[in-house]
Amino acid sequence: MDFDVSEEQGLLRDSVERTLADAYPSLETRQARIAAPLGFSEEGWASLAELGVLGLPFAEADGGFGGGPVETMIVMEAIGRTLAVEPYLASAVLGGTALRLGADADQRARLLPGVIDGSLRLALAQTERQSRYDLNDVATTARRAGDGYVLDGQKCVVLNADSAGLLVVSARSAGERRDPHGIGLFLVPADAAGLSVQPYPTQDGGRAAEVSLSGVEVGADAVLGDAQDGLPLLARVVEHGIAALAAEAVGSMEALHALTVEYLKTRKQFGVPVGSFQALQHRAVDMMIALEQARSMALYAAMMVEAPDAAERAAAISSVKVQVNKACRLVGQEAVQLHGGIGMTLEYVGAHHFKRLAMIEYQLGDTPHHLRRVVDAGGLIAA
Amino acid sequence: MDLRFTPEEVAFRDAVRSFCRSEIPAEIRRKVSEGRGLTKDDIVASQRILNAKGWAVPHWPREWGGQDWTPIQRYIYTEELLQAAVPLPQQFNCYMFGPVLATFGSDAQKERFLRRAANLDDWWCQGFSEPGAGSDLASLKTRAVRDGDHYVVDGQKTWTTLGQHADWIFCLVRTDPEAKKQRGISFLLIDMTSPGVTVRPILTLEGRHEVNEVFFDSVRVPVENLVGEENRGWDYAKFLLANERTGIARIGLTKERIARIKRLAKEMPAGDGTMWDDPAFRTRIAEVEIELKALEITQMRVAARQGRADSTQPDPASSLLKIRGSQLQQAATELLVELAGPFALAAPERGAGANDLPGGFDWVDAAAPSYFNNRKVSIYGGSNEIQHNVIAKGVLGL
C-alpha cells in the first residue's frame, strides 16, 4: 500500500497544473473560452496534446504514453480545480477508453494517431430519451446491411458531440429494447450522411448535443469489438468515466473549499471575521470531511477500475459515484451558503464550481441509480 | 502509487486473521459480536493469549514488548481483531498508560509497570474527567498537595470506565493552583487500594455497569508515582488523547456489525420473504457500507502518512476519523434495532430458558441496549463537536 505518486506522476501533475493554471487565469478567460464556437479553445486543446495528456492512457506501441487510472486522475483533478472546459472527459476518457479497450489493430492504427495528436476528437453517445442511466436500454437500431450496418435512432445529451470528429454510438443489432445482449458500439464519423447533431450549452459551461441517426451507413470496420456483445465494453467505458468524474469532482471541491475557508477568514461582520463563528466553522469542517471522503473514493476508483472481476468492479465504481455525488452536493451547497450573497453571483468563480459539481451528480449515473446497483450487488461487505 | 496490499501485507493479514479465529475462545468473540458485556476474566484471558503471541502491545517500543510493525501492519492488525470480534487489548493499559509511560516515564517506572500492563497483571483505568471538567478537561479540580515524599490527593473523577476492575488509576491532578489552567496539571499514578479511594458505580442508560465515580479523600501517593515533570501533565495528556483518537474509527467493528446485520436480515421474516428482500432496508445498509469504504481508505491514507511523519504529533485527520467513525458505529447499531423491529422492545431476563426468547430470536434483546450504549462514542475521547473545533483550528486555520 502506497499512496504516493511516482516521480513521473509528480512531474505530470506539475506540468498539467501549470498549463491549466496559465490557460485559466481568471473567470473572464473561462467565459471567453466558453463563448468560442466549439465551447472551448482549440489552442487549449492543442496545448493538452502538446503536453502528451491526450495520448496518456494508450499503450506505447500505439504511440501513447502507457499511463493508467492514476495518471487520468491527476489530469482530471487539475481540470476540476481550474474548471477547464476542454472536452477531455468526452474525448480522451470516454471515447479514448472505448477505443483503447475495444478497437482492433486496424482501428487503432487508423484512429489513435489522430486521437493522440489532438486532430481527432471523440464523443460517446449512449443516452436515449427513455434510458436514463441504464446502458442496456438501447432503442437505437443497427441493422445488418451487406458487410456493414445501418443505424437509426436518437441519442440525447451527447457530451461535446459538436466538436467531435468521430462518435461512439451504442446501438442494438439484436434483441428487445432493454436486453443486455444484442448491443454494439459503432464508430460514426461526424460527417456521415444521415447523422445530425444539434448542439447546445450545458448548465456548467460545457457543450452537449442531441444526435439523430437516420439511415446512417457504416462499414464492418466501424464495429468496436462484438456487434452483439458490446455492453460489457460500454460498461467499462462508463466505469472509467466515473473514475475520471470522481477525480474532477475532488479537484473542484478542493478549490471550492479553499475559496470558502479563505472567504471565512477575510469577510468581516460584527467587527470580526465570520470564520470566528463556530456555526460556520463546523460547516466548513463538514465540507472538508466530505471532500476527504470523496478523495478516498477517487483513489478507490483508480484502484478498482482495472480490477478483473466485473461484478466486484461494478459495485466498487457505483459506490464511488454515490459517495462523490453526495459530497458534490454538500460541498457545493455549503460553499454557497457560507459565502452568503456573493456565492449567488454569476461573477464569482465559486458559483461556477457549485454548478459544475451539481451537474457531475447527473453524469454517468445519479445517486439513486448507483445506490440501487450497490444494493443489487449485495453491498460491499461479505455477510 | 499502489493501493493494494503488498504480498507481505496480505500474508500478515491472513496470519492475524487465522490466529484470531483459532486462538481466541469462540464464546468471548460471540459476546463481542452480540454486543453483550464481557467479564473481567474474558478480557484478561483474551489479552493474555494475544500477549503470549507478542501481539498485545505491538505499537509499544520493542524493548517493552512492541513489534516493529509498519503503520499499515498496525492498521491491519487492529482491523482484523475487530472483524473477528476479538476484544481489543485493554485500551487504558495498552493505548493510553503504556505509550505515555514508555515515552515520558522514568526507567524505574517502566521497569515496574510496563510488562505487567501488557499482560493485564495490573488493570489500569483513566482518571481524567471530573463532574465539572468534561470537554473542558483543563478545568479539572482534583488537587495533589506535596507533603514530604508524598502527594496528598483530594477530589473526584467520573466516567471512569471499568474502574471497578482496576488495580491502578492514572490521573490528571492539579499541582499548581496558581498557574494558568493547563500549566498546573500533573500526571500521577495512584494505587486503587490506597486508603481514601472510593469507587462508586454509575449505571449507563442500558443498565450496564461500565463507568464509575472515583473519590479521593486525602489519598497519600508516593512522589515516585509522578510521571515526567510536575506541572507538565497536560502535555502527556494531549499525547495520550491523540493516541486515543487514532484507533477510534473502529472500521473493522462496524464492518463486523454490518456483516452480522446482513446475515440476520436473511433470517428475519417480513412480508412474503425476509428483511433482506426489503429494498428500503438494504439501501440503508448500502449507504453505511459506502461511507465506511471511503473511511477505510481515509484511514489507510492516514496510516500510510504516519509511516513518515513525526509520529509524536497527532495527525489532524485523526479527528476526521473519530467523527465519521463514531457516526458509522452508531449507524450500524441503529440498523440492528431497525432489523429487530417490534422485537427491539423486549428485554427479558436471560437464562430463564429458550421459551421466553422474543419471537424465538436469541439476539433481539441485545439490539436496543447496544444502540443505547453506543451513543457514547460521539461523546467520549473528545466529543464530535470538539473534534470539529480541532479541525477548524488545526487544519483550516479558522
Structure description:
- Chain A: Its EC number is 1.3.99.-.
- Chain A: It holds the Pfam family Acyl-CoA_dh_N.
- Chain A: This is Acyl-CoA dehydrogenase fadE12.
- Chain A: Keywords: FAD, Flavoprotein, Oxidoreductase.
- Chain A: It is an enzyme of class 1 (oxidoreductase).
- The complex is a heterodimer of chains A (about 375) and B (about 400).
- With about 375 residues, chain A is an alpha+beta fold.
- Chain A has 3 domains: about 5-120, Orthogonal Bundle (Butyryl-Coa Dehydrogenase, subunit A, domain 1); about 125-230, Beta Barrel (Butyryl-CoA Dehydrogenase, subunit A, domain 2); about 230-375, Butyryl-CoA Dehydrogenase, subunit A, domain 3.
- Chain A contains 11 helices and 10 strands.
- The two termini of chain A are about 25 Å apart.
- The relative contact order of chain A is 0.11.
- With about 400 residues, chain B is an alpha+beta fold.
- Chain B folds into 3 domains: about 5-90, no CATH class; about 125-230, Beta Barrel (Butyryl-CoA Dehydrogenase, subunit A, domain 2); about 250-395, Butyryl-CoA Dehydrogenase, subunit A, domain 3, CATH 1.20.140.
- Chain B has 12 helices and 10 strands.
- In chain B, the strands form 3 sheets. Chain B has a 4-stranded mixed beta sheet.
- In chain B, β9 and β10 form a beta hairpin.
- The radius of gyration of chain B is 22 Å and the shape is globular.
- The two termini of chain B are about 30 Å apart.
- The mean pLDDT of chain B is about 90.
- Chains A and B meet through α7, α8, α9 and α11 of A and α8, α9, α10 and α12 of B.
* Largest sheet composition of chain A: 4 strands, mixed
Q: Please indicate the count of domains of chain B.
A: 3
**CATH class (first level) name of the largest domain in chain B:** Mainly Alpha
Q: What is the assembly state of the chains in this entry?
A: heterodimer
CATH architecture type of the largest domain in chain A: Up-down Bundle
Q: Give the H and E element order of chain B.
A: HHHHHHEEEEEEEEHHEEHHHH
Strand order within the widest sheet of chain A? 1-4-5-8
Overall number of strands of chain B: 10
Average pLDDT reading of chain B: 92
How many domains of chain A? The number is 3
Radius of gyration of chain A: 21 Å
- End-to-end Cα distance of chain A, whole Å, is 25 Å
Question: Would you identify the CATH H-level superfamily of the largest domain in chain B?
Answer: Butyryl-CoA Dehydrogenase, subunit A, domain 3
Number of helices of chain A: 11
Instruction: Label the overall shape of chain A.
Output: globular
Shape type of chain B: globular
